[in-house]
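User: Hi! I'm working on a homework problem where we have to compare a predicted structure to a textbook description. Could you give me the structure for the chain below?
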Amino acid sequence: MRAELVRLFENDRVPRYTSYPTAPHFGPQVDAAVYADWLATLPDAEPVSLYVHIPWCRQLCWYCGCHTFVAGREERAFAYLDDLLREIDLVAARLPSGLAVSHLHFGGGTPQILGPAGLVRLKTAIASHFAFAPGAEIAIELDPRGVDDELAEGLAAIGVTRASLGVQTLDPLVQSAINRVQGAATVATAAGALRRAGIRQLSVDLLYGLPRQSEESARESARRVLELVAPARLAVFGYAHLPQIKRHQRLIAAGELPGAAERVAQFEAVAAVLERAGYLPIGLDHFARPDDSLAEASRQRRLRRNFQGYTTDTANVLLGFGSSAIGCLPQGYVQNLVDLRAWREAVRARRLPVARGRALSVEDRALREVIESIMCYGEVDLAEVASRHGLPLSRLSPHGERMSRAMALGLVERRGTRIAVPAAYRPLLRVVAAAFDRYLGAAPARHAVAV
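Assistant: Happy to help. Predicted structure tokens:
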């Protein structure tokens, strides 16, 4: 990517656009009563997606941007499971009967901390309230350091079809700087155990922009991951250094972080390794084999983007369970209480543990489609979107200054009502999407750097 573009945008902070409006713009207007009404009016014929947040980890990784806690004793995680089951009961009681699940995602944190028995208990509780559609995807995020044959067989027993391994980096120097030490043999052992159990759809998360990381280090991690895991898809995320929000990130020495130009070089080095190996670029930062369902969804223009990143999940309803979990319903977004004690007290009092949310206007829905199309495909036809939502084209006009600058730099090509981002500028998709964000500016410090 051109060096002058990197310099121009290196200090910009923009959202990752896993939702629109983004989470900093949720508010208390959506409370437990509103959420209960939304749940009661869901159609019973459409599939739903479930996200279950298990925020416990055995060790604090200093780079982490998720809502997580260190479980000094496993009993704390098991107590959380008891409350999680209470919340599932509370939500299910307000739903139409017979809803079918198309996607179930266990995220964290480290979901495997519950162990095979805990995960069986959790899945059994979910299955008591929901049917599972034929071919439903059941996915889980895993720390390779805790994956053995026993766990893998337990995951297979609850129907897991896809496992995502959080590798991040295989460079020991970088691992020590982020408090996430795991050898290559550990990653290979985890992948082998999962495949022996019949879980063959494996994904890998890699990070760039980490302390002490170099272009060669990022490239070598990507190359080694292909040898060790041969994943069906990969997510290559840029580390977001936000110590003002995530206090544990203060343990990372800011002076050891690569600059914007080096971050871009690291991403491009990883992308080159993956594309030479036959992986297709998907959206901003994902890669998939041509025969993977994510690549197929991209080809068929049914790729979606949600809080788990790029997905094949086309359900219009995402129900989130657990502290801090976010859901999306036709009416808008809802987020659970982040504070663990407050969340626990709410579910034990048989109250929906809602903290905040956002009801969507017609314009919000249309702009969400515009932003999602840019993030997924690097292009959008504004007239088509406006027509689908019954809006005049003027209501979808981009922010003049942002778009004018992007066009002047060649970052955006515009033909009539269609805009497109050249493939070479894929790392800046968020910058283009931000031109359509009506709310951006109120909380810029909460967002990651643009490059």
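For your comparison, note the following. The mean pLDDT is 94. The domain at 1-21+362-451 is CATH 1.10.10.920 (Arc Repressor Mutant, subunit A). Good luck with the assignment!
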